[in-house]
Design a protein that fits this description.
alpha/beta; DNA polymerase, domain 1; 2 domains; six-stranded parallel sheet; 11% strand; beta-phosphoglucomutase activity; HAD_sf
């Protein structure tokens, strides 16, 4: 009834863009932070940060990795560690201010799927690169569904690389007591799909939240199925 292989016992959900609409908040905060940096660095040649920049270089990655990847895409490789950190910290301040002011809504289809998964006895964990995982889950009212959370704070404390490396998902599976082939990964970022494939997980569900624009890339990255919303799986 969940549209998953019968062997699945654990679900590892990414958070932003999979369960909650916070991916939009992240993208907007990144745009403000990067545009401020780019316009100050080169006012005459300023080219704004775009949605495609977010999808290609930042989405799903750890904060510091996303900063480096985007700047490298613009041939900006001479920024020191303090400046890199300042961009990421500025973005996070913008994000948390918006979260505190406006809150966040879970996707209705994701809530329906979580309810069905819980009823079916599927064990649920969240694996996110964000260091704001607990705050987002609480703000969206989803903490009650989640048995385990692996977030950016946890992976940083353990010295693990971020997505597209599989380490965060592998940690989630290990802490849930299953091997990767018994777990399914739900992701909306190409880097997350790549991480799940690299970890040899049993099934990879990709959620395309940009109107079909990512579907082909998600399949090429190795997703087993691409949906526009999680509740589509309930009738699969």
């Amino acid at each position: 009834m969940l549209g998953l292989p019968d062997s699945t016992s654990v679900a590892l959900f990414d958070l932003d863009g999979v369960l909650t609409s916070t991916a939009v908040l992240h993208r907007n905060a990144w745009k403000q932070a990067f545009d401020a940096f780019l316009s100050e660095r080169d006012p005459d040649g300023f080219v704004p940060f775009t949605e495609q920049d977010y999808l290609d270089h930042v989405d799903g990655r750890r904060r510091e990795d996303g900063v480096r990847a985007f700047l490298h895409s613009r041939q900006i490789d001479d920024v020191d560690a303090d400046a890199l950190a300042a961009i990421g910290e500025g973005k996070n301040e913008l994000f948390t201010a918006t979260l505190e002011r406006d809150g966040v809504d879970p996707y209705p289809g994701s809530v329906r799927y979580l309810e069905a998964a819980r009823q079916a006895g599927l064990r649920i964990a969240v694996v996110t690169s964000s260091k704001n995982g607990a705050a987002v889950l609480d703000a969206a009212g989803l903490s009650e569904f989640v048995e385990l959370r692996v977030d950016g704070l946890e992976t940083a404390a353990r010295g693990l690389p971020g997505k597209p490396a599989p380490d965060s998902f592998l940690l989630g599976a290990d802490l849930m007591g299953v091997t990767p082939d018994g777990a399914v990964v739900f992701e909306d970022a190409i880097s997350g799909v790549q991480a799940a494939v690299a970890g040899k997980f049993g099934y990879v569900v990709a959620i395309d939240r940009v109107g079909g624009g990512q579907a082909d890339a998600m399949r090429e990255a190795g997703a087993d199925i691409v949906v526009n919303d999680l509740d589509e799986l309930l009738s699969a």
